[in-house]
Amino acid sequence: MRTPTRSASRRPAGRLQILPWVIAVSALAWSMSMRLEMASYNHELVARQVAIVEGRDSTLGGHPSAGRHCEPCPRCVQGSMATQLKTADATPDPRAVTFVLVATMNANNGPRVAALLASVQKYIEKDKSAVHTLLAVVPDAELRWWELAASALGDQPAFKVGVLAESAVLHSGVEALKRAAPKTSRRETRGTGYRVQMLLKLGVAEHVPTDFYVTFDCDVVLARPMHLGDLVRTDENGALRAVTQGRMGGPHASRWLSSSLDAFFGTTAGSAQRKGGVDGSHDCRVGNLMHTLGVTPAVMSKHGAVATLERLERRAAEEGKRGWAEYLFSALEDGLDWTEYGLYAAGTCLDGSFSRYHVVDPSVRLYDAALQEDGSKFMDPKVMNEAFGPNPFVVLQSIGGSDATSAADALYSHLGNPAVEATR
């Protein structure tokens, strides 16, 4: 999810025209110290289908194809490619996280992914890595391109790399969801593609191999060395709790959170209030939800996200929908402006688990909110110098005003490899 502010400046298309293999070429420049243990997509399909047929499927029961009537096709596959990865030389520390990149190939995202990979190369420690797995969630049609990009990565035991098709997360299929919300597709200027990305950031929880995961878009980079304990801490009782941004900013945050809370009680605005969901035992008023998560990048609990989806699944059944994803898209038609982080904040509040999975530390911020909300600030070297260091991440979002070419120029002094010489 991104905070919409102002339209990105348009640059001549010729400067940004790239072929899909730009990711592989860019990644290759950083391949001296990275490792890939890639699971086979076909093996994933066969393994999951056999598990379903034999009754060994243990995934979230709310999906329409879970454990019954599964057709031999990718869209019915349950399970995680990430769990197929070898983990013998990955860190066993429970504080390690999975980085989840939800992305698609286009002229804007390609160069940005190169910057993300450069930051990972620079700031992830080789020993005692804070990252267990880097998992890309991509459209089915782009699966092979992303696997080629991943295969360009070299040999490093710091973390694993996986590629997961969207249909393994959203089993009803992206196009079916879009057909379920025709008015929304016409009404929202960016279409419903970004809503699909929101669902993927929740649904991927079933597939991550760690207790916590960090959501990425292509416009996020690491801003400083990443250490164990930076994102997930062990409290005095030995429990693991993830740090949060502590506040959801932007002019639309109140509406997002209100709509997200309503989605657990019905498809229309005010459903939570009418059904007593606001002033319950956990006091899930919007004002309280505002001080939980921010936006992307966010550290989320795998178990908290799965429990949120299970609650939405029960709501979907009551509404006569085939699953939580279809239910949420139908709620868009009725005017609910939910977001993935609003749903997660409301869901973990309603079941009283947010404080069990998270700690809100006023001294910690995951990213500079002002830079995230106004991407034009990246042109100021002073702002960029201040952004790299105190927070774990920097966000140069395209809808906030940054374009891929200028963003690369702004990031190079912080992420560039002096050993790589360019001829002009």
Write up this protein.
The chain has 424 residues and is α/β, with parallel strands linked by helices. The strands form 3 sheets. Strands 3-2-1-4-8 form a 5-stranded mixed beta sheet. The longest helix has 17 residues. The radius of gyration is 21 Å and the shape is globular. The two termini are 37 Å apart.
Short description:
This protein is α/β, with parallel strands linked by helices. It has 18 helices and 10 strands.
Q: What keyword list fits this structure?
A:
18 helices; 5-stranded mixed β-sheet; 3-stranded mixed β-sheet; 424 residues
| Strand percent estimate | 5-15%
Percent in helix? 25-40%
Rg measurement, Å: 21 Å
Major sheet size, sense and barrel closure: 5 strands, mixed
- How many beta-strand segments? 10
Question: Helical stretch count?
Answer: 18
Written as H for each helix and E for each strand, in order along the chain, the element string is: HHHEHEHEHHHEEEEHHHEHHHHEHHEH
Strand order, largest beta sheet:
3-2-1-4-8
Tertiary shape: globular
Mean pLDDT over the full residue set: 76
CA distance, first residue to last residue: 37 Å
What secondary-structure arrangement, pairings included, does this model have?
Layout: H1 13-16, H2 22-28, H3 41-53, E1 97-102, H4 109-123, E2 131-138, H5 143-151, E3 160-165, H6 174-179, H7 182-187, H8 193-203, E4 212-216, E5 220-222, E6 232-234, E7 240-243, H9 253-262, H10 271-274, H11 286-289, E8 299-301, H12 302-318, H13 324-333, H14 340-350, H15 354-357, E9 358-359, H16 369-373, H17 381-387, E10 393-395, H18 404-415
Parallel strand pairs: 1-2, 1-4, 2-3, 7-9
Antiparallel strand pairs: 4-8, 5-10, 6-7
